[in-house]
Specification:
With about 240 residues, the chain is mostly helical. It is built from 10 helices and 3 strands. Helix 2 packs antiparallel against helix 7 and helix 9 runs parallel beside helix 10 (about 210-235).
Length: about 240
């Protein structure tokens, strides 16, 4: 079957180095729910799992020295809305998505959440059109160019910043911190701080010689739990 007679879609296939055997899958991946009853939400659901697995494998092999916690942080920053929408913009995906008139006029082609979902749908479409290995190759091709830079920036960030960005990328409420105890003399106090992330039902307790260090400790625990919960939820849905 020939590819769509659409030079922009042809260019997309060239950039991701994949030609569809069933072009209708690509068309579905590039169709927003405002356009028609057949849209990309199911493919986005599938592509989300494909992406998580592909990125996990990629960074596991590429960064053999990183412990589990750092790998979780790196993965979270590679699969979040910000990273996906940046990749989608590089692919000019917004110009290819089919919208209903209302969504098109309201700027849907530039909305990060829509761009991110469409790119995940493309990953899902590649998987259905071929197999996981081909879909993994597409993900790897897109992520390799900026993986090292994003990785170093991610690992340099403190836990509170990482947790905040993780939640913001999912449009969730920011964590709440509160001091539980502050024991000891003024120059030798030991703080215990609670971090609460309601969406994931997470409550962690951090300890430190000052409030800031206790908050960072609690945030690190909460971040790792949030990443784990998010990934498990995605896997279970698949």
């Amino acid at each position: 079957m020939k590819m769509f007679k659409n030079t922009k879609r042809d260019e997309l296939c060239r950039k991701i180095a994949y030609i569809f055997n069933r072009p209708t899958l690509l068309q579905e991946a590039l169709t927003h729910r405002s356009h028609s009853a057949t849209h990309n939400e199911r493919l986005e659901f599938l592509g989300d799992s494909v992406l998580n697995c592909a990125i996990s494998s990629l960074i596991f092999k590429r960064f053999p020295e990183l412990p589990e916690g750092n790998l979780s942080r790196l993965r979270a920053n590679l699969v979040n809305q910000r990273a996906l929408s940046e990749l989608a913009q590089q692919l000019n995906l917004g110009e290819l998505i089919r919208f209903g008139d209302g969504e098109l006029k309201s700027g849907g082609s530039r909305r990060p959440s829509i761009l991110a979902d469409a790119l995940e749908a493309v990953f899902g479409a590649v998987y259905l059109d071929s197999n996981f290995a081909k879909a993994e190759a597409v993900v790897t091709r897109l992520y390799i160019p900026f993986l090292q830079d994003l990785g170093s920036k991610t690992l340099d960030k403190d836990p509170k910043t990482l947790l905040q960005e993780f939640l913001q990328s999912r449009k969730l409420a920011l964590p709440a911190y509160s001091v539980i105890t502050a024991i000891g003399k003024a120059h030798k106090k030991q703080f215990k701080v609670e971090c609460v992330v309601p969406k994931f039902n997470i409550r962690t307790i951090g300890e430190g010689a000052n409030r800031r260090s206790a908050e960072q400790d609690a945030a690190e625990q909460a971040y790792e739990q949030a990443c784990s919960t998010s990934t498990t939820s995605t896997t279970n849905k698949a």
